[in-house]
């Protein structure tokens, strides 16, 4: 059997394209190695998706999954181990099994790089966050901490400073790695206190974040900062290693513009795994719709 579209990943981008593909009359199959929904299932509340109001990440994931399956989409809970994009018919391999499709849409997403310190996993969703724009509003007029020295951390600190009473920005060096204009915005903001040469040691709190223990790497001095939230901005890890050498990539992300078309005919990409500037739920689902439409046009060209 040859499918019209094989979709790798059942997060919001992958399921969105399954919905659009099925509604266009295409025969789709979606592969997921873990649980459908992707990173959004780790978000206690989603409140910035237009028209939804407030919904939990798990509820959103179930809703979009049920919608996709309701349109006839097939989701196989199998890990994709290899792909072959060399022919007109693309091959997706799950161990010894091979699936063939006219087009492939990659929606493997990213995982947030973690700190790996005590309290991080236990308090994720209860004050520990990896998305300031997603969760910042929950900590209005409170004290929060941002960890990281790159552009994402700088942007997060500036954004949070418009909501929070105070923002600690923790960086392990004595200078930033981000763009000059982002650094200037941080340094000129009275609500942001930069804590240089410092690393996080432990996140504390019984039911939610209450404090952050940090250490100065030059003096060895340890300090406890009172904070209601810890926003981790130390990088993302795109899940694209199996595509290396088979498709154009940059810094681990698959290269594609807003058309979601890669440099390989018949292969498209959507969601956080694409090289893009904004990684949000709404942009992931938009990518899914675009990629599915482009795949439809490719098949019917």
Task: List the defining traits of the structure above.
301 residues; alpha/beta; seven-stranded mixed beta sheet; 6 helices; five-stranded parallel beta sheet; elongated; 23% helix; 19 strands
Number of strands: 19
C-alpha-based Rg, rounded: 21 Å
Identify the overall geometry. elongated
In this structure, how is the largest beta sheet organized?
7 strands, mixed
**Mean of pLDDT:** 93
Strand content: 25-35%
Helix content: 10-25%
- Kindly name the structural category: alpha/beta
Number of helices: 6
Order of helices and strands: EHEHEEEEEEHEHEHEEEEEEEEEH
Pick out the low-confidence regions.
none
Intertermini distance: 21 Å
Can you describe this structure?
The chain has 301 residues and is α/β, with parallel strands linked by helices. The protein has 6 helices and 19 strands. Strands 1, 2, 3, 4, 5, 6 and 19 form a 7-stranded mixed sheet that branches. Strands 8-15-9-10-11 form a 5-stranded parallel sheet, covered by helices on one side. The protein starts with a strand and ends with a helix.
């Amino acid at each position: 059997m040859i499918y019209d579209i094989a979709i790798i990943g059942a997060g919001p981008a992958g399921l969105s394209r399954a919905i659009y593909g099925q509604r266009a009359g295409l025969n789709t199959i979606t592969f997921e190695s873990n649980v459908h929904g992707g990173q959004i299932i780790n978000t206690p509340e989603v409140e910035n998706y237009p028209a939804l109001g407030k919904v939990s990440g798990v509820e959103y994931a179930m809703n979009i999954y049920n919608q996709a399956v309701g349109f006839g989409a097939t989701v196989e809970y199998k890990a994709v181990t290899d792909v072959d994009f060399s022919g007109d018919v693309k091959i997706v391999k799950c161990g010894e099994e091979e699936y063939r499709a006219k087009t492939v849409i990659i929606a493997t997403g990213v995982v947030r790089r973690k700190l790996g310190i005590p309290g991080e996993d236990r308090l994720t969703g209860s004050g520990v966050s990896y998305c300031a724009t997603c969760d910042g509003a929950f900590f209005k007029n409170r004290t929060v901490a941002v960890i990281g020295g790159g552009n994402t951390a700088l942007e997060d600190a500036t954004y949070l400073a418009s909501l929070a009473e105070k923002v600690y920005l923790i960086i392990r060096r004595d200078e930033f790695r981000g763009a000059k204009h982002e650094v200037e915005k941080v340094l000129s903001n009275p609500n942001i206190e930069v804590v240089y040469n410092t690393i996080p040691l432990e996140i504390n709190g019984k039911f939610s974040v209450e404090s952050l223990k940090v250490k100065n790497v030059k003096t060895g001095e340890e300090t406890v900062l009172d904070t209601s939230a810890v926003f981790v901005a130390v990088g993302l890890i795109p899940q694209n290693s199996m595509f290396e050498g088979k498709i154009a990539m940059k810094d681990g992300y698959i290269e594609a513009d807003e058309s979601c078309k890669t440099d390989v005919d018949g292969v498209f990409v959507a969601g956080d795994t694409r090289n893009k500037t904004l990684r949000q739920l709404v942009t992931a689902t938009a990518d899914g719709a675009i990629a599915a439409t482009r795949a439809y046009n490719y098949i019917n060209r």
